[in-house]
Structure formats: structure tokens, C-alpha cells
Design a protein that fits this description.
Helix content: 40-55%
Strand order of the largest sheet: 3-2-1-4-5-6
Distance between the termini: 53 Å
Largest sheet: 6 strands, parallel
Shape: globular
Strand content: 5-15%
CATH architecture: 3-Layer(aba) Sandwich
Number of strands: 6
CATH class: Alpha Beta
CATH topology: Rossmann fold
Oligomer: single chain
Radius of gyration: 20 Å
Structural class: alpha/beta
Length: 351
């Protein structure tokens, strides 16, 4: 473990329960029956506790991290590997779902190349490349341990930079053909379950493709036998470069007291790696939605998260995080802008 990673983990503290209670007291004084806004109030109080003060600001950014996966060569995806680079170009051009949704939500969008097979030569892409895609973990580790650590540290440094630039909340997303296979393998190891229970159709595999995906993961785990108690080793064995950077973003955001709005299955797997490295990081997580991918629900349960949305989303890109941002904004607007019984001259009897 690098010094930077160890220092970041040491900086991660628990949410400030006093700030959360103060936010709830403020909400209880608003012109409404107590707790009548339900999870909207819970969300505002959770964000207040993470940020450490009862009136948190709202300046969101969404970071989408892209990389390629050697495991795609095993026929575990319905799409060819070149789609990763093509979609990053689409992000840069502003034409992808995440571009539309982030614009609607008023969120800054940051696109990161953590290891796309074809480097992105043009446009506003942050190059945090760990290589030109991982090795197929069907025959050995996806990456070296040093690469796994370097990816996490790169994510930490980006989170530090965004926090210093005024970002108050961080949504995370990904792009990478083959990355549901890596996420499924990570979930199988870290949750201690068979691959079949956490492996889904990804971008649209048929029955034969799904069976091949499950068997590929089973054989790889039998070959490599990663140690559940060593999350860095598990990440190196079956992870992805974008998953490493995403895990670092979670750790860096938690160290800066930034709420992390997770997207779907892959970001959930990255968060699980981060929490196994630093259990206190779980206190900074908010689940935007629940994906139909079979591995997502058990990851959310392991992280103790109740998602805000359940819309059948399985796109990735941070799309679910972007869709949840207006709910986050509404919760903080109620906390900061709604009149109190006293200020509005409304009787609070019977609340």
C-alpha cells in the first residue's frame, strides 16, 4: 500500500451525526408535518452529516471513467471492444445519455481515460492511463498490484482536485466493454458467492453468452484463487483500470467529506473495494438507483444502502447518478429555502 493511499484512508472519518441532527431540527421547524417529506428529509440529513454542517451547498460533478478489459476477448460481451473508445468520443462530442442527463441536472461532467485500448487524442478527456486495457483475467491477473494502487491513487488525487475546486457532491460512472464481467468477478470474491448469483446479461448477452460469462469467471477464480481478505489483490486479479480509479474516487471523496452518488453495478463493485480498504468510507455513499444486474442488489445490501430510484437502468455512464441529482437538489432546497412555522406565521400545533 502506498503512502498516499494509507494517508487518505487515515483521513476518512465518520459522518458528523450532530450536523445531521441539526439538519433534522431545521426540517422539523419547516411548514409541514414532522418528517412528512420522508426520504427526502433523510437524504438532506445524510448529506449534512457527510459534509459536516447543517446547511450544505450543492455543486455537483459527475466523473465518468473509461477503460478497456482484456476479458472482452473471451466473448463475454455483446459489443466489440472498440465501442469503449467510440463512446468516449461520444462523451466528448456531448451526444451520450450522460451528457444530456448531466446538462439537465446542472452537473459538471469530467471524462477520464484510465486505459482505453485506443488513446483518446482530442477533446477534454483527463488522461489517467494505467495501460491500454487490462490483461484477460481468464489466464492470469488483470493488472499488477502496482497498477491497482496507481489507479486508486489517481482517483484519490482527482477527488482532491475536485474538492479544492468547489465540488460539494461527486457522482461516479463508467464505460468499458467487458466491465460487468470484472464487476461480477469482484462481487463473487468479495461477497463470497458463486459467480452465477452475481452475473447478468450486461449489454445484452443471450443465454449462451451468459453461460459463457459465468464459466469464464468460475475458471478464472479457480485458477487465481484471490484472497477475499486482500481487496487490492482481488482488484489486481479480476478488476479493471476504471474500477481502480473509481475506488480511489470513493476514498478521496470520503476523505474530503464529499457525498458519493453511486451509479450502478460497476460503481457499486468499485465502492465495495474501497470500503474493504477503508470501512469508514461507507458513511459517504449514497446509492442513486438499483440496477437489474443480479450482482447489484447484494452489493447494495453489503454496503447498507437503500437506492433512491429503481427504474430498470442498466446503461452505466453515471446515468443513474445524473437522474438522482434533482432529488438531491430538491432535498437540500427544502432544507435551505423552505419557510419555518415561525417565519411564515403558521401555527405549528399538531405537528
Amino acid at each position: 500500500m502506498s503512502d498516499r493511499l494509507a494517508e487518505t484512508i487515515a483521513r476518512i472519518g465518520a459522518p458528523d451525526d450532530d450536523a445531521g441532527r441539526e439538519a433534522q431540527d431545521l426540517l422539523d421547524a419547516k411548514t409541514k408535518p414532522r418528517r412528512s417529506l420522508g426520504r427526502l428529509e433523510e437524504l438532506a440529513c445524510r448529506i449534512a452529516a457527510i459534509r459536516g454542517h447543517a446547511r450544505p451547498d450543492f455543486e455537483p460533478a459527475i466523473v465518468v471513467v473509461a477503460a478497456d478489459h482484456g476479458i472482452a476477448a473471451e466473448g463475454v460481451s455483446a459489443y466489440p471492444q472498440e465501442v469503449t473508445a467510440q463512446m468516449v468520443a461520444n462523451f466528448v462530442a456531448g451526444g451520450a445519455a450522460i451528457n444530456v442527463l448531466a446538462r439537465r441536472a446542472g452537473a459538471r461532467l469530467v471524462v477520464v481515460d484510465a486505459g482505453v485500448a485506443t488513446p483518446i487524442a482530442e477533446g477534454p478527456v483527463r488522461a489517467l492511463r494505467l495501460g491500454a486495457g487490462t490483461v484477460s483475467f481468464a489466464s492470469g491477473p488483470a493488472m499488477s498490484r502496482d497498477q491497482a494502487v496507481a489507479g486508486i491513487v489517481a482517483g484519490i488525487e482527482l477527488a482532491d482536485e475536485l474538492a479544492a475546486d468547489g465540488v460539494d457532491l461527486l457522482g461516479i460512472g463508467e464505460m468499458g466493454i467487458g466491465n460487468t464481467t470484472s464487476a461480477s468477478a469482484l462481487a463473487a470474491v468479495l461477497l463470497g458467492v458463486d459467480a452465477a448469483s452475481v452475473c447478468g446479461r450486461g449489454t445484452g448477452l443471450d443465454d449462451d453468452g451468459l453461460a459463457r460469462k459465468v464459466e469464464t469467471i468460475r475458471r478464472a477464480l479457480a485458477l487465481q484463487a484471490p484472497d477475499t481478505a486482500d481487496p487490492l489483490g482481488v482488484l489486481a486479479a479480476v478488476g479493471g483500470f476504471e474500477i481502480a480509479v473509481l475506488a480511489g474516487l470513493v476514498l478521496g471523496a470520503a476523505a474530503n467529506r464529499l457525498p458519493v452518488l453511486l451509479d450502478g453495478f460497476i460503481t457499486g463493485a468499485a465502492a465495495l473495494v474501497a470500503v474493504r480498504l477503508a470501512p469508514a468510507a461507507a458513511g459517504s455513499l449514497i446509492a442513486a438507483h438499483r440496477s437489474p444486474e443480479p450482482g447489484h442488489a447484494p452489493i447494495l445490501a453489503e454496503l447498507g444502502l437503500d437506492p433512491l430510484l429503481d427504474l430498470g437502468l442498466r446503461l452505466g455512464e453515471g446515468s443513474g447518478a445524473a437522474l438522482a441529482l434533482p432529488i438531491v437538489a430538491a432535498s437540500l432546497a427544502v432544507l435551505g429555502e423552505m419557510a419555518t412555522f415561525e417565519s411564515a406565521g403558521v401555527s405549528d400545533a399538531g405537528r
